[in-house]
Specification:
The longest helix has 18 residues. Strand 3 and strand 4 form a beta hairpin. The protein has seven helices and 13 strands.
Length: 262
């Protein structure tokens, strides 16, 4: 079993090949005649099957890091390897197939197409896969809607669904391509507390049942409470790492030598 989190020279791990490797990554944006640093020298491994929260205040860089892992954006410097593929130096368009087949996305605003039904929204990512037949698409969509507790709601359009139901449709859409990793950007931000708790528990259950890797960007303490790995980021830098054991969190601020947690 792997407990992998890395931070520079510090390691909290039982070694195996990680699903995602972020190596000394920095990201700068140009604003007018100035450059703004969003991330500075981030090194991090994400192991297969984890439920990881990237936590921090607004503007800390957590969404930027999520976008880099999701190949929506590219780093200014450093290296990113996803599922064994080095994505460094490639444009988002060049990475379209990797995003489509290996990465699922869940957004705080759901991003459902309002003119499509729930079933059609879930099916939409599969339309670009020529090898998936119409019958298989229908079967997968029905399975995913059942998985998220929306069997029988497939004909409803987004405006006929509650916020929690819309987020469940978004989760089904993210999972229908059978991705290796699901990235969730503040998935509970637009939900009330009770609904958000239910959505988090649903994703945790999917993580445990199907071993799907989930990575969240969040400032919601409830998300952190559900996580088994924690990356605390502030001012574009990793400030703290955490691994949940059977009985407690093991938190570190960084150390000059590697340590193992068994």
């Amino acid at each position: 079993m792997t407990l992998g989190l890395y931070y520079g020279g510090f390691a909290l791990t039982l070694m195996s090949e990680p699903l995602v490797r972020v190596e000394n990554v920095s990201k700068r944006y140009r604003l007018g005649d100035q450059y703004v640093s969003a991330l500075s020298r981030i090194t991090l491994n994400v192991e297969d099957g984890v439920f990881l929260a990237i936590a921090g205040p607004s503007g800390s860089g957590k969404s930027t890091l999520l976008n880099l892992i999701g190949c929506i954006d590219t780093p200014t410097s450093g290296r990113i390897v996803i599922d064994g593929r080095d994505v460094t130096g490639r444009t988002p368009d060049q990475l379209a197939e990797l995003r489509a087949r290996s990465i699922g996305f869940i957004f705080q605003t759901f991003n459902l197409l309002p003119v499509l039904s729930a079933s059609e929204n879930v099916e939409y990512p599969l339309l670009q896969f020529r090898e998936v037949s119409r019958q298989e698409r229908t079967t997968r969509v029905e399975e995913m809607l059942e998985l998220v507790g929306l069997g029988g709601h497939g004909h409803h359009r987004p405006n006929e669904l509650s916020g929690g139901q819309r987020q469940r449709v978004a989760i089904a859409r993210a999972l229908v391509t059978r991705p290796r990793i699901v990235l969730a950007d503040e998935p509970t931000a637009n939900l009330d507390s009770k609904t958000g708790e239910g959505i988090l528990q649903l994703m945790r259950d999917i993580n445990r049942l199907h071993k799907t890797t989930f990575v969240f960007s969040t400032h919601d303490k409830k998300v952190v409470a559900k996580a088994d790995r924690l990356v605390r980021i502030e001012d574009g830098r990793i400030r703290r790492l955490g691994v949940r054991t059977d009985t407690r969190w093991v938190l570190v601020r960084g150390a000059p030598t590697a340590r193992r947690v068994n």
